[in-house]
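hiii, so i know i said id send this last week but things got crazy w the move. better late than never?? heres the sequnce for the chain we talked about at the cafe, plus the structure i predicted for it. fair warning i was half asleep when i ran it
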Amino acid sequence: MSLRDVAEGCQLFAVLLLVLGPSAEDRHTGCAHAAEHQAHTAHRSAVCFSALEEVVFVIQSQRNSYHARRGVQRRTEILQQAAELGQGVPVVVLLHELSEYAGDWSILPALPHLSATCGQSASWFFFIEEETRVSLAALLQVLHRYQGHKEWFLGKRLHDNEASIIHHYAFSEDPSSFGYPDPAAGWALSTPLLHRLTERIRHGHLKSDFTIDLKHEIALYIWEEGRGPKLTSVPEFCTESRDDCATTFTTYLPNCGESVSKNDVFVAVKTCQKFHRERVPVVKATWERDAGFLEYYSDVADASIPTVSLGVPNTERGHCGKTFAILRRFLSDTVPKADWLLIVDDDTLIRMVLSRPAVFRLVSSGCRCYTDDAPDDMVLGRCFTSLGIPITHSPLFHQARPDDYNDTLISLQQAISFHKHWNIDPVAVYKHWLQETHPRDEL
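okay and structure toks below
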């Protein structure tokens, strides 16, 4: 058998994978299946084995049908490109298929699984978003610059412009001194570093069971207060296209078809008496005009706004009791029937969205608040997880102000929401980041 025959055989295998697709069993075994195949074919020729077969692509996919489909499409494109390149078949993992644990989305809990199933045959683990495009040839050139047997953390470097509350004011003396990756541009871990992180996770505990800003928390965990590597900036990891880019990014805004009519969205604004004069006027001056159906829910009825009292006293911490009262009202005949429920705090320039079937299943399940002041977002997350309803993440929803995020990051996004009116002009923020120049009847 000639070397050319062997090379063509490798390409044919990649095309067969592309056409036939993985079986249900293969999807669950993921890296293990790929490693087994490589072991069986190793005797054929070293020509099949190139840098591509030493790279594991991890697509940060989600269980929602649209996002799962986009993840499959991205995997197909990578395998097709590999077949055309003729330099081996990489392993491509969809994160939501790795296990049934929803927490894999935050990456760190998934590392032990990736290490066990892929770590023996891989030199690099490359993490991308569903909409990240990769030039395999350019990526191989980038990775060739770094010795895979050493610990490397590579990515497009972002840093805080000023101390940020969402990062707990870390590195407040010099915010630019600490870098974290832009996930849209892709980021990489060498296998030795991934193995060491796996051992930390196995013998210790992740500090939290929730994530506020994934990219920053991953970088902090890897840095380990100076005991681990900082992010190495790679200029070829891009979001905007250039000739030398190994990766580019399209958009976080999904193309799901026609927009939903604003009359199919019922908007519930949570407020309380002490904020009626301070915050409600901001809502009325900005995005209220775009809502088809909107009600303000407070601890008192105020006809001048007007507000609806739900019979739930105001709480200083969480607002679970008020939120669940809104869910029940949404399903009643008291308000116009709509397909979607948008729940918003009075100091938010837009927030959280639930479909009617999801609200119905949640309310009818009997899942409830343990106290009125429990954190509503966490209780909702727990309830939906127990019901098997996937919670779809979008980075276009922001829980802080624009000033709390990296300029480069948010300037490339079509933001949906920001939160908190502290030390900003909220009307100016709305006009700069959120207001459409051509209002429409759809959302």
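btw Residues 167 and 216 are 7 Å apart (CA to CA). thought thatd interest u
miss u guys!!
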